[in-house]
Specification:
The protein is α+β, with helices and mostly antiparallel strands. It has helices at about 10-15, 40-50, 110-125, 145-150, 165-170, 175-185, 215-230, 275-295, 350-365, 395-405, 405-410, 415-430, 435-445; strands at about 20-30, 35-40, 55, 75, 80, 85, 95-100, 125-140, 195, 200-205, 210, 235, 255-260, 320, 330, 340. It has 2 domains: about 10-105, Ubiquitin-like (UB roll), CATH 3.10.20.70; about 120-445, Creatine Kinase, Chain A, domain 2. Strands 8, 9, 10, 11, 12, 13, 14, 15 and 16 form a 9-stranded mixed beta sheet that branches. Strands 1, 2, 5, 6 and 7 form a 5-stranded mixed beta sheet that branches. The protein is globular.
């Protein structure tokens, strides 16, 4: 479809359209958490007009809210985005609206970085379509019981669950329908909800969307899924790897480009693999840069517990047509839906940064006409990767590689890279000081 020439809607008009009398304003922090303030609709409109100052501490504390910078933590300028207004699912006459930092400080925002790359794609003549799919575990626990048990010996929800299980769906259909209804209220489409491998394990592929709606949908899905299950005295976990005995949880990302007339850019039906030259260059950039940019989509220590041999997850940069063992799987069933599936991100990924990595590297490949290595249908899980294609083994190594990457600074900006690397280095340092149960049980009384 041609680009829309509609004038942007005002925040007041957006709120009036859904009869909202109150607004949950969400600042999304670097870990992808919706940081909420509830205000009246009248107050939100005033903030939209006068600006929305918000504390900079969001970018100077870790996921446990431990600060790693001394300072006054001043308010920084931010703004509300009327095009993100949606209905709030847990109360009548209420809305949500995203906000973000602007100006120089806003350059470190993952959402702003992603938005800028989508704008760059538009300048190159492309619309970006994408969709995430998330696997997650549900536990029959509350925040209180988790803490009381020190996060050990947890009660599993649907312990007899099997992949694509009718029995789990039949037993808990109302719960799953409630999740779907919650997302429908938020304007998030789910292609399906089905059980996955393991007790209480589910997968939700989201419906594809254009531009920023897709990563916004993904961020909101995780935040509101956790809230929905909590309201039902359950806990949803999007951790990459919960246990050696359980499968890892993926956050696969599907991406395609269309031209300004709505035609698929990645498809060339007369080519042997159905891929256009543009698609091949996109894949080439992604394959080349993926190892050095890995920290962007794998930003937790736990993510690297999934990216190991034998865990049904990629360990190196490679690709293949319809190859589910590849880091990049090309799906070319029909020309109009030809796309790449980026299979590296875990369920804990920051959706803005996962898309920024994929899109930034892909556009880099298009600009520089980078030809990919030959695709393959081999079982990459069973192969030994080359030094050049192998992923960093942990978050510390991944942060160091990102820090050395000239391409990263070119694509994402030096301000963002310097801040993000510092934040990941702090996270990894916190982990290095920790002594695990595995170490105690393995070494205590023996060494």
């Amino acid at each position: 479809m041609p680009r829309s020439s509609k004038m942007p809607v005002s925040l007041q008009a957006a709120l009036e359209k859904i009869n909202a009398s109150s607004v949950h304003i969400g600042m999304v922090d670097p870990e992808g958490e919706f940081r909420d303030k509830l205000v009246s609709a009248e107050k939100a409109v005033k903030l939209d007009q006068s600006g929305y100052p918000f504390c900079e501490v969001l970018y100077f504390w870790d996921i446990a809210e431990k600060t790693y910078k001394d300072g006054a933590f001043v308010d920084r300028p931010a703004k509300l985005f009327a095009d993100t207004v949606r209905k709030y699912p847990f109360a009548e006459d209420s809305a949500i609206c995203l906000a973000d930092f602007i100006g120089d400080f806003g350059q470190r925002s993952p959402r702003n970085v992603c938005k800028e790359l989508i704008t760059q794609a538009a300048d190159m003549g492309f619309d970006v379509l994408s969709a995430f799919e998330f696997e997650f575990f549900v536990f029959d626990e509350t925040p209180e019981s988790l803490r009381a048990k020190s996060y050990r010996d947890l009660k599993q929800f649907a312990p007899g669950n099997r992949t694509y299980s009718l029995q789990t769906s039949a037993m808990h259909g109302a719960l799953l329908e409630g999740l779907d209804a919650t997302m429908t209220t938020l304007g998030i489409g789910l292609d399906a909800i089905h059980t996955e491998l393991g007790p209480g394990c589910f997968e939700a592929p989201l419906t594809y969307a254009k531009g920023m709606k897709s990563p916004d949908d993904a961020m909101l899905f995780k935040n509101f899924a956790k809230a929905y299950f909590s309201r039902n005295d359950l806990t949803a976990s999007f951790m990459s790897k919960l246990s050696p005995s359980l499968s890892g949880q993926s956050g696969h990302l599907h991406v395609s480009l269309r031209d300004r007339d709505g035609n698929p850019v990645f498809s060339r039906p007369d080519a042997p693999d159905g891929l256009s030259r543009t698609a091949r260059h996109f894949i080439g950039g992604l394959i080349q840069l993926m190892p050095e940019l890995l920290a962007l989509c794998s930003s937790t220590v736990n993510a690297y517990k999934r990216l190991v041999p034998g865990a049904w997850a990629p360990t190196s940069s490679n690709w293949g047509v319809q190859n589910r063992t590849a880091a990049v799987r090309v799906i070319n069933d029909v020309p109009e839906a030809t796309r790449v599936e980026f299979r590296v991100p875990s369920a804990d990924t920051n959706s803005y940064l996962a898309l920024a990595l994929c899109l930034g590297a892909g556009l880099y490949g298009i600009r520089n006409e980078i030809a990919p290595p030959a695709g393959s249908d081999e079982n990459f899980y069973a192969s030994t990767p080359s030094t050049e294609t192998a992923f960093p083994r942990d978050l510390g190594e991944a942060a160091a590689r990102l820090d050395r990457s000239a391409a990263a600074r070119d694509i994402f900006g030096a301000d963002f890279v310097d801040w993000f690397v510092g934040a990941r280095q702090f996270e990894y340092a916190e982990y290095q000081r920790h002594v695990s149960e595995w170490e105690i049980r393995r070494y205590l009384g023996v060494v």
